[in-house]
Amino acid sequence: MQDVTHLLQSHRSIRTFKDIPIEQSIVEELICSGQAAATSSFIQACTVIQVSKGAKREKIAELAGNQNYVKKAPVFLVFCADMHRHQLACEMHKVPMKSGYTEQLLTASIDCALFAQNVVIAAEALGLGICYIGGIRNDIAAVSSLLDLPDLAFPVFGLCLGYPDQNPEVKPRLPLSLTLKQNSYSQHKTLNEADKDDIAALEAYDQQIREYYKSRTSAQKEMSWTEQISGMLQKEARPHMMDFLQGKGFMKR
């Protein structure tokens, strides 16, 4: 048990990989581990596309914000929320599929996240490093077209896999008092009282993050967590997503 919790709590994003290939049998074993994750109502709504090195991978790296590690990682996977085969299941039984529900978007996306996290844990247990790539949603329509995705399927995120060629520090996470609540969000205080407690915890965490950024071995910077988050939330968050998802048959009701 201690080995498992240590593995989980030692996670870092790895962006520099050794030039060592990963056997395809290992990739397939990782995907089987992903398939074993919990899945809502047994819908199994995740499809994984392995993209080889070459022009297609390089284009995805460009679309994801020119992230060099997308090009160079020994293995690159794209996790897709996929309700297309469910449409095929309905056609096999000659019944219409009631699609377009926001709930279907949620369950398919959650299935992808659970599937991918199983892959990540299995990979890290084998000594591999990983980096999630949400940047593929910067131009999700172009990535979807590159991967020939049908309606009712869309790319949720990518994943770089490889043997680490760096050893970054583990980022401190939020304190448990902020992330573990008892019985209610405000824990039987008024929301105003609870918010004051949470702000005090955030201030202490901000100092911890400042010290982490100052002392880490790469890309030192002067910033707290709340400064980082408040800055990020002043920007638009991929406003093209709603139109794209609706065009793919999701979020219509």
Automatic annotation (TrEMBL):
Transmembrane segments: none annotated. InterPro entries: Flavin_OxRdtase_Frp (IPR016446), Nitroreductase (IPR029479), Nitroreductase-like (IPR000415). Residues 9-163 form the Nitroreductase domain. Keywords: Flavoprotein, FMN, NADP, Oxidoreductase. CDD domains: NfsA-like (cd02146). GO terms for molecular function: oxidoreductase activity. It comes from the Bacteria. PANTHER family: NADPH-DEPENDENT OXIDOREDUCTASE, OXYGEN-INSENSITIVE NADPH NITROREDUCTASE. Belongs to the flavin oxidoreductase frp family. This is Nitroreductase.
